[in-house]
Specification:
Elements: E1 4-10, E2 14-21, E3 26-33, H1 37-40, H2 42-59, E4 69-76, H3 82-92, E5 97-104, H4 105-112, E6 119-124, E7 128-133, E8 139-141, H5 155-171, H6 179-187, H7 192-200, H8 211-220, H9 224-247, E9 256-260, H10 269-277, E10 285-288, H11 293-304, H12 310-317
Parallel strand pairs: 1-4, 4-5, 6-9, 9-10
Antiparallel strand pairs: 1-2, 2-3, 6-7, 7-8
Helix pairs in contact: 4-11, 5-8, 6-8, 8-9, 9-10, 11-12
Protein name: N-acetylglucosamine kinase-like BadF-type ATPase
GO molecular function, one term: kinase activity
Domain ATPase BadF/BadG/BcrA/BcrD type: 8-301
Amino acid sequence: MTERVLAIDGGNSKTAVALVDVAGRVLAQVRGPGASPQNVGLARSREVFDSLVRETARRAGLSPDERIATHTAAYLAGADLPKEEEDLTAALAGLWSETIVVGNDTFALLRAGTSDGVGVAVVCGAGINCVGVAADGRTHRFPALGRISGDWGGGSHLGAEALWLAVRAEDGRGEPTALVAALKAHYGVRSIADAVESLHFGKVEFDPHPLCPLLFSVARDGDAVARRVVDRLVEEITLLAGVSLRRLGLLGEAVDVVLGGGVVTGTDVARFVASSLSATAPLARVRVVDVPPVVGAALLGLDALNADPSAEARLRAAYEPLSVD
């Protein structure tokens, strides 16, 4: 069998699967729904991943009886603790390949944004997380389990914060903010109180994620209340990256700090983080990842197979650069 890598980037809101040969050629790829075991359970995660992988194999022209890959590199949201990685490895081992590595999806982001997987990555999508990897293989990471593990940030959190601030501005408990007008337009109501009532009685499903871009838009237009939330996010990302750099002894090194996730892509967060982080890590290079994290998962798989360095260039060239402006 030609050596192949099965790469899985499993986020909270979507899953990307790619089948790549050892030369870095993309044989097939599929996107599907998120299947974090923390959200849907381990059995359902396995079912979703298996369905997407089988579809990827079909698109690559593989026989149903043929081994899909030599190695699976699965980097998944919901693989936050060692036990979760162990449980997922046990659930997925032997399904598609001879060997498998399961890790947190932030490691794939780090590899996607670096040439060697060394540095720090902070993802801010539905949630927020950070990992660091030193050149000698030492790692630093956070549990990233939400409020119970000290997290602050992520699209869900920020969207809920935008509604909270708008409610309090309208009823007099908070400062005036343009978030009121923005959220009234979003919900198509005459008042934020009307929106709250509709949410409470289930007439409208509360999905905080669309409110996050509204928060950033209002902040860009100069609203002080919204700007403070964005500033707090910059502070949190800087803090996460700084702690990982310090714990790994990298504060004085020329090291990459990779940012990714829907909340930071297309915003000015990276620029502010670079300015903030320069005080403690002056040589750090802050950048937003410009290829999908599934590329990082595939690269980690190619690393495991000791693929030729040309495979990385070929794989990266197969993907259109993400817009990071």
